[in-house]
Design a protein that fits this description.
heterodimer, A: alpha+beta, BirA Bifunctional Protein, domain 2, Methane Monooxygenase Hydroxylase, Chain G, domain 1, 2 domains, nine-stranded mixed β-sheet, 12 helices, 48% helix, 17% strand, globular, B: alpha+beta, five-stranded antiparallel β-sheet, 25 helices, 20 strands
């Protein structure tokens, strides 16, 4: 019974029948509005690749946001300049709606851009990217409204805005101030484009599953099964006991690695798998989200679990920086030997 | 010797007032160009900018009667001062040297010390003079400090002034050791008399170039001063002064609404927000599907206002119209693209709200109760499930109090039911999405689900009042649950060490306290504060978290509430400080009664006899205090046979008569009449003090007189402690 209620509550409303005038006109003329979903991605990637970004690929461990990709979480640490862009499918189990809600998804796609350090004309640069995907700036109500981003599980926060396009939130724009509990110097700017929303806007559709993904495929054809099955898994099937155990195991592995890193010699540290420890941390974060969507975490436990993930994340950030300093500094012992 | 030729120090007051050598003035104009500043912070930041700039202009002797003013828009803080000195005033500075006794010998001739001191300032010893200081006589010289060029000083103080603007939360962007500001500074205009000042802040050099509207204006515009700036920016679609933006917003909103025969749903906070969210605000009117009007208007308005910053529109009959008014940062929406976009976003929002409205009601409100057990109220105070148990008990107790004290419409069962349902909406999807609708959603669901109005409004209103100027719950049951909820939070938080300190009050306890007092006073609820606090404490012990609340905590909650009451009496009801002190000293456990007494005191203090009588009471109090512990002198009762003087007898008789009268008046809360009766004692009291020496030599007589005064004081301090009244003359 309880499950039934839960499931019922998660189900979405059917897509709206009332179409705006613009949409009706477009429908009449038979002209398709906006770029396809994949063309949108290609445009944005091209734009940022042309501005010296490394074009990275999605990370292959489940993450809740593009920020968790090591290309953001780790690269923003330390002094080296870096520019990177990538699409990151982000899993938010609690936002899943069995593919039945026009706007809410278990997994949505973000385009993530990191500019370290940010150039002084960063806002203009961002706006040019919006122009590049076909939005005429002077014809739209585009605004930067205060929205400070924070991720308690990553010990990360920043100052910035959500960018609104005619009232629709399309991008999170953040000046990172801290990550893994470490003050950043230089700061990085993180741009997170909500690709599904932007595409829905450009194509003028109300239901994300109606988006044209490619010339002849709809978003629903590509992704619906995934939405249905992972919503069902997170809400109805995930075994809480096993999920908890997995959380504990991954946490244990991460901590064991960090312990070993602490004990390691300088030489061992240089090649130590800090990155593998980070994967374990990401696993914990995702498993926490599954437990959360399963509705088995009490409020106090919630805070405790978030604290545990954050602790691991902060230790990893420190280890990463320590390793990084070793790599950038000339090996001192050898220098000393050479000198003698 | 020469030291005697100059007058001593006090005559040297002219040191900082030397007349300027050359007069010359110019306009100072400043603009700090920023990435978008959070809308809610701009007005205050501009004000602070103005204050700090004026401070520095005065400090640097650059001000010349004209004050600097400042204002802001999303991408800029602007300040100007019509007249700033081009050069600082020259100053004469007095420098105090060694003591006179060291600088001059017995013959009054300068010693090497004096010569050294004078030489240090390039002067001869003849220029020395003496000043008297609290530590004795010292020699001093007067130095002439020529004023420096304003441009030079401004280059130093302007960056400092900008950095001093306080913000709720700052960031850095040029590196961890760089300037902290609200958002990155991207350009800087600093002109003195039209010429750019040479200064820099966070790596940005000042110049004469500003930027227009982000999309409609030029990105580089050279300006020569304030007037030029305003004119050029307006051409580039930036209305810099907020009043100009506000005027445009209001005009366009009304025009659009009127065009449809509607009126804008007034919302001052939202107006302020859109004025500071847009550099060139324009209003547009959009539509939504009238089918959504089936949803309660509270929900529609909240979605429009809090999530999309739209104004709602009402028809002539007051009902919501299927339209919204958005303020956009553009000059026009020629193709209707913006409107279509906003309409679609709102459609999705309303679809969500409608969805929540329907799913939430697949079960009844009370069915959400078990879920409250897993929502923490406060770590040490348990879950909301626990809180509801306590809330029910305390609401019932309060309702019983009302009934027992003559409020016959009090319904214990309704209070209990409203308390039971009050927190259920916290776990509904609607409130999870629109948290600002807590209480309201529960009330709406309760109503739709057939709860009696007394209950559904009580649930709806129980977070009220949200501020002193906000309305209190509309019915008695709502008032009951609201007081119970706030009192439980107060006592609980105080008990676990979360009483507010300084500016930190994370649980909003001050507001909760004010809310309790406001409701009690507005509804004239007869209740003992201390007993209510004890009842709340019993709840915390009887139910989870089974917390033992010690008497000291109850006492501090009581004092806390009395402080809130004092605030309301003073600031909102206009009672005088001493009146409040007098009444509170006589007890304020029953706030309504305390206010009745206050009103009586205020009324009666205007009468001739009152203040002199208050002076006499103060005298009585002093005499009794001097007499030492009452144990050593107090008789069980006045003994008339020990009276020696007629004045004693008369006072005693008059006091007894007045006491009897006052007792009668007090029973029906006729405090004014009671006080009038007491005030009429003045001739007897005056006569007593004229004729009678209280501290008589003979012990029994003395003790009897003291007892008479003690009884007088006690008898007449139950309404107000008159010795607290500060007489108007001295």
């Amino acid at each position: 019974m309880k499950e039934g209620v839960r499931k019922g509550m998660r189900k979405g409303v059917k897509s709206e029948t009332v179409k705006s005038q613009v949409q009706l006109e477009k429908a009449k003329s038979g002209k398709l509005a906006g770029p396809s979903f994949q063309d949108l991605i290609l445009e944005l990637q091209k734009f940022w690749a042309d501005r010296d970004c490394v074009l990275q690929q999605p990370y292959d461990v489940e993450v809740g946001a593009g920020t968790m990709h090591p290309e953001t979480f780790l690269r923003v640490l330390g002094p080296e300049p870096y520019r990177v862009a990538y699409v990151q499918p982000s899993r938010r189990p609690a936002d899943g709606r069995y593919g039945e809600n026009p706007n809410r998804l278990y997994k949505h796609l973000q385009l993530q851009v990191i500019l370290k350090p940010p150039p002084a004309d960063i806002q203009n640069l961002y706006l040019q990217s919006i122009q590049a995907i076909g939005i005429q700036l002077s014809e739209h109500d585009i605004r930067f409204e205060e929205d400070n981003w924070e991720s308690p599980t990553l010990g990360a926060w920043g100052i910035g805005w959500q960018v609104l396009l005619d009232g629709l939130e399309i991008t999170q724009f953040t000046y990172f101030q801290q990550c893994g509990g470490i003050d950043l110097d230089p700061v990085s700017v993180e741009l997170t484009y909500g690709l599904d929303r932007i595409a829905a806007y450009l194509q003028n559709v109300d239901n994300v599953f109606d988006l044209r993904w490619s010339r002849d495929r709809r978003y629903g054809e590509v992704r619906l099964a995934e939405e249905q099955q992972f919503s069902a898994y997170s809400f109805d099937y995930a075994n809480a006991e096993i999920t908890r155990k997995l959380f504990d195991l991954h946490e244990r592995e991460a901590n064991a690695l960090l312990e070993a890193f602490g004990q390691a010699s300088e030489e061992e540290k240089r090649r130590f798998p800090v990155l593998a420890a980070y994967d374990q941390c990401l696993k914990c974060s995702h498993l926490f989200n599954v437990l959360d969507s399963r509705g088995v975490i009490s409020v106090t436990e919630r805070a405790t679990l978030i604290g545990r993930v954050r602790q691991v994340a902060c230790r990893i950030a420190k280890a990463y920086l320590a390793q990084h300093e070793l790599a950038s500094a000339p090996p001192q012992e050898k220098q000393a030997e050479a000198g003698a | 010797m020469k030291s005697e030729m100059k007058p001593p120090a006090p005559a040297h007051k002219h040191d900082h007032t030397a007349a300027p050598i050359k007069a010359g003035f110019a306009e100072l104009f400043l603009e700090v160009g920023c990435e978008e500043i959070p809308a809610g912070m701009i007005a205050n930041a501009a004000h602070e900018f103005q204050v700090v700039l004026n401070k520095y202009l005065a400090l640097e002797k650059l001000a010349d009667g004209a004050e600097a003013f400042a204002f802001g828009a999303p991408r800029r803080l602007v300040a100007a001062c019509p007249r700033v000195r081009l050069k600082q005033e020259d100053m004469r500075k007095e420098i105090v040297g060694p003591p006179k006794s060291i600088a001059f010998d017995g013959q009054n001739a300068p010693t090497p010390k004096a010569e050294g001191f004078a030489a240090k300032y390039g002067l001869s010893v003849e220029k020395l003079y003496t000043v008297s200081t609290p530590r004795g006589e010292y020699v001093a010289v007067e130095q002439f400090v020529p004023g420096r060029a304003a441009a030079e000083r401004l280059a130093e103080i302007i960056p400092r002034a900008i950095a001093e603007i306080p913000w709720p939360k700052t960031m850095y962007w040029t590196g961890a050791s760089g300037l902290r500001f609200i958002r990155p500074i991207r350009w800087l205009v600093a002109l003195l008399g039209g010429r750019a000042l040479r200064l820099e802040i966070a790596g940005v050099a000042a110049g004469a170039s500003t930027a227009g509207h982000r999309f409609l204006g030029k990105s580089s515009i050279t300006v020569s001063g304030y007037d030029d700036y305003l004119a050029k920016l307006a051409k580039n679609y930036v209305l810099a002064p907020p009043e100009r933006r506000r005027e445009k917003v209001e005009r366009e909103l009304s025009r659009l609404a009127a065009g449809k025969g509607l009126r804008v749903n007034a919302d001052a906070a939202l107006s302020d927000l859109v004025v500071y969210l847009n550099e060139y605000p324009s209003a547009i009117l959009g539509n939504f599907d009238p089918a959504y009007l089936e949803l309660p208007e509270e929900i529609l308005i909240t979605v429009m206002r809090d999530h999309q910053k739209y104004f709602a529109a009402r028809r002539r009959d007051g009902k919501l119209a299927p339209h919204f008014l958005a303020v956009i940062n553009l000059n026009r929406d020629a193709k209707g693209l913006v409107r279509a976009g906003h309409e679609r976003v709102l459609r999705a929002r309303f679809a969500d709200a409608k969805f929540f409205w329907e799913v939430d009601q697949k079960c009844r409100l009370a069915d959400y109760l078990p879920k409250l057990a897993s929502v923490t109220f406060q770590a040490k105070l348990g879950s909301y499930g626990d809180k509801v148990e306590r809330l029910r008990a305390l609401s019932r107790w309060l309702a019983e109090q009302w009934f027992a004290r003559g409020i016959h419409e009090a319904r214990v069962a309704a209070a209990d039911r409203a308390a039971e349902l009050a927190k259920c909406d916290l776990v509904t999807d609607m409130v999870r999405e629109f948290t600002e609708l807590q209480g309201i959603v529960g009330g709406l669901y309760a109503k739709v689900q057939g709860e009696p109005e007394e209950v559904s409004w009580a649930v709806y209103d129980h977070y009220r009042p949200t501020g002193l100027d906000e309305p209190a719950p509309r019915n008695l049951t709502g008032a009951t649950v609201s007081i119970a909820d706030k009192l439980d939070t107060l006592v609980g938080c105080f008990a676990v060490g979360l009483a507010p300190t300084g500016s930190s009050d994370p649980f909003g306890l001050r507001r909760a306290g004010l809310g309790i007092v406001k409701i009690i006073l507005e509804r004239k609820l007869p209740v003992s504060l201390s007993e209510s606090i004890s009842a709340a404490a019993r709840g915390l012990f009887g139910y989870a978290p089974k917390l033992k609340v010690i008497p000291e905590v109850e006492k501090s909650v009581f004092d806390f509430l009395i402080d809130r009451a004092r605030y309301i009496f003073l600031e909102r009801e206009g009672f005088a400080y001493d009146e409040i002190n007098a009444v509170v000293a006589a007890g304020a456990d029953d706030l309504v009664d305390a206010r009745d007494r206050l009103a009586a005191v205020r009324e009666i203090r205007k009468t001739r006899n009152f203040e002199p009588l208050a002076v006499s009471f103060k005298r009585v109090r002093k005499i009794l205090e001097k007499a030492g512990s009452p144990k050593t002198w107090r008789f069980p009762a006045v003994r008339p046979e020990l009276f020696q003087e007629e004045a004693e007898r008369r006072l005693h008789a008059a006091a007894q008569r007045a006491a009897q009268e006052a007792e009668g008046h007090k029973k029906v809360r006729g405090y004014r009449e009671a006080l009038q009766g007491i005030a009429r004692l003045r001739p007897e009291v005056d006569e007593f003090f004229d004729r009678v020496l209280v501290m008589a030599d003979e012990e029994d007589i003395r003790r009897n007189r003291l007892t008479l005064l003690a009884e007088l004081l006690r008898e007449f301090s139950t309404i107000a402690d008159f010795s607290e009244i500060v007489a108007a003359d001295k």
